[in-house]
């Protein structure tokens, strides 16, 4: 039993003061020290109380006498007990002041369980987790000295070639592993690029609507965001040129625009690359969910057609799960030294054992098998939500069911009253981000960005039904009031 409530007894009397020995603590002296310290600090052992002799306490607790001696010594140096010559050990008459407690508000950081339609949740396969755990244990056990040092600031020598192989096979991106840097996700990769390549105040085109987390990251670096509208072909390059043709970079999600779901047309891709060449600007290509494509092959990544100006950002947050905090950058060869120098001055890379474990799973085909298993489940989740919304929302919501990815966008009709989206979300009792959260310039109707991965089908159906009904009710109430 790891915990055992133990009553302190003395030969002459019984102290009804239970202390707990935590048997999970490895050393007996620490078990005793920890239990007595807690008893004193919690006030169970009152100031001035005489503690039992070391022999008596050792007998009562069933531990070695040396353990009691060591525990009493530790309590002495904590200032929690006093030794009175020839008279034994007493709880200190005046206890040291406890450290000031942190304000409750600061401690109260609880992450509530996620509900439909939260973003960033994926199905986590327990078999895959077991394989990852086994691989990382093996990597730690078999580590050679080189793997225990600072290493190459680009990250694991095993994972980078796997990344290069994956990108060539799936995204049309041909790159040498020397141009890949392993990062702790897209946000981190973006920050690193800005540190290495841009200066505060530099203008950066940003899709509007666009990915809020990247917007926050970019703003935090001190660059100036230039909102550029998005239409059915992706970012409107001519609008960007009109707003600031001399911008130093553009952040885009060409494969699956966040949040609209539009795939950037080839004409638009070429226009964007042309602008970048003329302006000497960089393109940050966030390719966050191309692994989950439900119909036909995805268009080649921008980095596959204009490699010299494009920095490609990939993540395992969707392929596997966000808490893994692993992603990667593909940097044009001419820029690698600058990004590596910025990297060496920062954190270097995420823990090497996890990178190597992931590399092992990629090499063994475990990750691609996982994606093959998840793809139909996510497609089904998308269909379930789209069907239920079409059925219950009628004309109150316009749907853009995407050909890839893990979210869809449902927009309110033109003329919907201001604030309706918030009311509907509240009435439907769902968790989701609004289209207006993703906008820099507020224009057009609001909508709901609905993450559908990582939830049970019946929860998705129920949430979509509530959303559809709430949209109908609130819009028809507003119509009647007009
Ligand atoms: C547009 C976009 N980019 C990137 C990411 C992944 O970010 P990260 O790798 O920092 O978890 C997400 C995750 O939801 C996303 O929606």
Number of helical stretches of at least 4 residues: 15
Structural class: alpha/beta
Task: Tell me the major beta sheet.
Answer: 8 strands, mixed
Instruction: Kindly estimate the percentage of residues that lie in beta strands according to DSSP.
Output: 15-25%
Model description:
- By secondary structure, the chain is of the alpha/beta class.
- The protein has 15 helices and 16 strands.
- The protein has helices at 28-41, 54-61, 65-78, 104-107, 126-141, 159-170, 186-197, 212-221, 237-244, 266-279, 336-344, 352-363, 366-393, 420-428, 457-481, and strands at residues 3-9, 14-22, 81-84, 88-91, 180-183, 203-208, 224-231, 234-235, 249-252, 282-286, 310-315, 327-330, 398-400, 407-411, 433-434, 447-451.
- The chain has an eight-stranded mixed β-sheet with strand order 5-12-11-10-9-6-7-8, with helices on both faces. A four-stranded antiparallel β-sheet has the order 13-14-16-15, covered by helices on one side. It has a two-stranded antiparallel sheet with strand order 1-2.
- Helix 1 crosses helix 3 (65-78) and helix 7 packs across helix 11 (336-344).
- The longest helix has 28 residues, at 366-393.
- It is globular, with a radius of gyration of 30 Å.
- It starts with a strand and ends with a helix.
- Bound molecules: pyridoxal-5'-phosphate.
- Residues 119-120, 185-187, 211, 253, 258, 286, 288, 315, 317, 322, 327 line the site of pyridoxal-5'-phosphate.
